[in-house]
């Protein structure tokens, strides 16, 4: 792990280290408890890297436990995707996959325990009435008229709720704490709701389901979790977390520690809003490469190592550091792919070039390194012939002074090949450039031409052996840094109409057999990944992961 050598702050890691060194803490146990109601995103990655990373660093265990208390919104597909994402990131959970539903019997017994202790009661208030009775941040709440029911009546009603005798919303079980508490979470919170929904793990056994607050801490306690790490929005819930542990016969008392969540600019991580984008077909499913979901980032070409590096770079603090610059994420993936992605040439906007002094039957092949610094990546075969493709952007009829690419009468070097000169521009009936006629200086392979300087180098592919492919150029999904900053506005108004551009490109032959999710640096263009979905359909499609320019690294140097 890189965490022991990084300078990024991580107050939780420092705190645990101090506890262990002082002899106050034995083996640590953490957990990652996702709700199976959507796909994981980059914000979850920070939590995954933190919880599993702490367990790795200190020789402890990290559990994967699904908080499956709301069957109406949960699906097996989400469970499978979450397990795959955690494994893809390179982490292994200790023991079997756990579910909050594994503890439903115990949680129900503990609810009965609270009733017997006079610390819980069945309430008949409607949701609207309950909100009214609850009070506000400045005004205390009022006791429910059902708060003084007897223990026997509450136990009877709770059991009848469990077997499905009442309709949804007709009754709830509430903790009996303090309706005047300054912390609203302590004003008799709901422990159980009636839901006549089949559960993906327990089937139709239960007609009532526990709340997150009633499930969270007790599940931690049952599993022997030592550090219950969560984001800052749960800080106000900590007194309730501790109240349950203090008032139930739990086998252990974990500690809740909160940290600042990840907020990335030009990005949304709200599950509800991401689901809207998917349901309205604004994006192509949960794994659309424009989404910040881990499955989308994986499909776009991000590597587990780059995401883990990014999470280390941003650190772990309690202070809300505002928006993290997405350029930092781009820097993390560039750094990884610069070292590990093989090179290839691909022309995104093909412009045909006929080399007039090359015979029609001329064939030449170059062996080029798969990576300039990695002998283990071998060599690739680059064919050269009379007709080639270059990129339209590498030619201008009337170039500015510092345009060092191809122009009429000007020379440029073909990467790994000869110097060529543009002699003639062929246009179609509409006046558009259709083809270039050029000549080759055969005395320039591997050396500079005699008596003249050629500054420009451009990429190219052989027209005869080029591989046709679809290339998808992805950009930020939103045009503003905080698309949901204005709560009264529609975040969809900030969608980037150019977040996806599809081009029909030509690649070198080595790309023909690209495996799903294989990543390349297309020289002079950017980093790209073979789309796994398209590969399964027998199509050759590459997704742009990120361009070559590293704005974050440049800004960091200046700073």
TrEMBL record:
'HIGH' region, short sequence motif: residues: 34-44
Catalyzed chemical reaction(s): tRNA(Gln) + L-glutamine + ATP = L-glutaminyl-tRNA(Gln) + AMP + diphosphate
Motif residue range(s): 'KMSKS' region: 268-272
Occurrences of domain Glutamyl/glutaminyl-tRNA synthetase class Ib anti-codon binding (ranges): 341-441
Residues annotated as binding ATP: 35-37, 41-47, 231, 261-262
One cellular component (GO) term of this entry: cytosol
Chief location category: cytoplasm
Family from the record: Belongs to the class-I aminoacyl-tRNA synthetase family.
Molecular-function GO term, any one: glutamine-tRNA ligase activity
Residues that hold L-glutamine according to the record: 67, 212
Location of this chain's protein in the cell: Cytoplasm
Keywords for this protein: Aminoacyl-tRNA synthetase, ATP-binding, Cytoplasm, Ligase, Nucleotide-binding, Protein biosynthesis
Swiss-Prot/TrEMBL GO biological process terms: glutaminyl-tRNA aminoacylation; glutamyl-tRNA aminoacylation
Record note on quaternary structure: Monomer.
Enzyme class of the recorded protein, top EC level: ligase
Domain tRNA synthetases class I (E and Q) anti-codon binding: 457-531
Pfam families: tRNA-synt_1c (PF00749), tRNA-synt_1c_C (PF03950), tRNA-synt_1c_C2 (PF20974)
Superkingdom classification of source: Bacteria
Domain Glutamyl/glutaminyl-tRNA synthetase class Ib catalytic: 27-321
E.C. code: 6.1.1.18
Protein name: Glutamine--tRNA ligase
């Amino acid at each position: 792990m890189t965490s022991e050598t990084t300078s990024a702050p991580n107050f939780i890691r420092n705190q645990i280290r101090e506890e262990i060194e002082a002899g106050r803490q034995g083996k640590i146990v953490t957990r990652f408890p996702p709700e199976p109601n959507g796909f994981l995103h980059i914000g979850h990655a920070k939590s995954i890297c933190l919880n599993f990373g702490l367990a790795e660093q200190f020789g402890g265990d990290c559990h994967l436990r699904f908080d499956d208390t709301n069957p109406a919104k949960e699906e097996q597909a989400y469970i499978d995707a979450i397990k795959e994402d955690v494994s893809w990131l390179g982490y292994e959970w200790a023991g079997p996959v756990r579910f909050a539903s594994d503890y439903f019997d115990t949680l129900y017994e503990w609810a009965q325990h609270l009733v017997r202790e006079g610390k819980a009661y069945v309430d008949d208030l409607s949701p609207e009435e309950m909100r009214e009775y609850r009070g506000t941040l400045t005004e205390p709440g009022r006791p429910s008229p059902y708060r003084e029911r007897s223990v026997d009546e509450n136990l009877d009603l709770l059991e009848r709720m469990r077997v499905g005798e009442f309709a949804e919303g007709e009754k709830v079980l509430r903790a009996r704490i303090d309706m005047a508490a300054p912390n609203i979470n302590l004003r008799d919170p709901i422990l159980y709701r009636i839901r006549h929904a089949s559960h993906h793990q327990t089937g139709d056994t239960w007609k009532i389901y526990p709340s997150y607050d009633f499930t969270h801490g007790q599940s931690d306690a049952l599993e022997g979790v030592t550090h219950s790490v969560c984001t800052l929005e749960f800080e106000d819930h900590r007194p309730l977390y501790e109240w349950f542990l203090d008032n139930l016969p739990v086998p252990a008392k974990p500690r809740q520690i909160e940290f600042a969540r990840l907020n990335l600019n030009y990005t949304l991580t709200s599950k509800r809003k991401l689901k809207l984008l998917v349901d309205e077909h604004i994006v192509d499913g949960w794994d659309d490469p424009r989404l910040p979901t881990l499955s989308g980032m994986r499909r776009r070409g991000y590597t587990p190592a780059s995401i883990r590096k990014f999470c280390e770079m941003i650190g772990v603090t309690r202070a809300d550091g505002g928006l993290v610059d997405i350029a930092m994420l781009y820097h993390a993936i560039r750094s990884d792919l610069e070292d590990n992605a093989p090179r290839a040439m691909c022309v995104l906007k093909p412009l045909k070039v006929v080399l007039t002094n090359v015979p029609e039957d001329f064939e030449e092949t170059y062996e080029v390194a798969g990576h300039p610094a990695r002998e283990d990546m071998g060599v690739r075969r680059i064919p050269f012939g009379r007709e080639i493709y270059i990129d339209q952007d590498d030619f201008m009829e009337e170039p500015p002074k510092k345009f060092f690419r191809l122009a009429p009468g000007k020379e440029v070097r073909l990467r790994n090949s000869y110097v060529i000169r543009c002699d003639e521009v062929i246009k179609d009936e509409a006046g558009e450039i259709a083809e270039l006629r050029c000549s080759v200086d055969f005395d320039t392979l591997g050396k500079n031409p005699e008596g003249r300087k050629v500054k420009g180098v451009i990429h190219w592919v052989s027209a005869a052996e080029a591989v046709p492919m679809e290339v998808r150029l992805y950009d930020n999904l939103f045009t503003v840094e905080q698309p949901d900053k204005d709560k009264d506005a529609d975040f969809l108004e900030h969608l980037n109409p150019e977040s996806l551009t599809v081009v029909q490109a030509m690649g070198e032959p080595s790309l023909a057999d690209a495996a799903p999710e294989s990543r390349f640096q297309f020289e002079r263009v950017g980093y790209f990944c073979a789309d796994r979905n398209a590969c399964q359909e027998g199509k050759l499609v590459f997704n742009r992961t990120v361009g070559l320019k590293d704005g974050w690294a440049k800004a960091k140097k200046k700073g």
